[in-house]
Predict the structure.
Amino acid sequence: MRPPAHSVVLTQVTEWQDGEVSAVADMLAVEEPLEIRVNGAPVTVTMRTPGHDLELAAGLLLSEGIIESGDEIAAVRAADVAGGGKSNTADVELRTQSFEAAKLQRNFFAASSCGICGKATIESIRRRGLRAPNPNFRVRPEVLCLLPETIRVEQAVFARTGGLHAAALFDAEGALVALREDVGRHNAVDKVIGWAMHAAKLPLAESILMVSGRGGFEIAQKALAAGVPVLASVSAPSSLAVKLARELGLTLIGFLRGRRFVVYAGAARCLPETRVAGFGAR
């Protein structure tokens, strides 16, 4: 796979290896701001890796509860507001004009690093009307174990830079449906959701979403907004992500590496009728 245009840049670095110092060329993942507007009014600025920007803008509005479905979007356009030939603004045109930009800005959830109150956050999610994802979806453990390697092979920008996160959609048999990369885990997820919206595949009721890094609260709520029944990550989830998953019926899997994974919520979708050793022992 070839990386999107402007997603990588070449630079010169100094490398030390086993006592030898040399000047070498290195590839860096690009990080630049993208301003997202709604009906021409600025809503937020996100630091992202250029590529699939229109998907990112649409997916972010849905995953953060600003819109309920892709039907509310009339068009998404890119603009070079600052000049210089680069698109640094995505303007989402909604079919309704009845909104306040300041209110939209306040609707975005704070990141977990901001010390947000867990109880208040989950109640905010509940008020959005998110529903439990497809209870009938099932995936075999052997299929889950194949996903990390598939992502690794398909990460075009990561292969060149080693510096990007990925979010990928798979079906129940482990076939890759879509993959997006970005410097931010949240952005990669929003790009995938935006792709699904454009392809008229929402809700993603028959899909597995896998992300690199950890499965935090913000990733879990985005998965629920898109109707994803199974969320997996290569690292640990946060306590608030586990609480949210258990409350709203999301299967949450962490430490998916090799032939091992840990199920924090919703084990019935991937480990049906399995006797768990150690539980209930006397």
The chain has a mean pLDDT of 84. Residues 141-269 form a domain with the Cytidine Deaminase; domain 2 fold (CATH 3.40.140.10). The CA atoms of residues 31 and 253 lie 29 Å apart. The first strand starts at residue 8 and ends at 17.
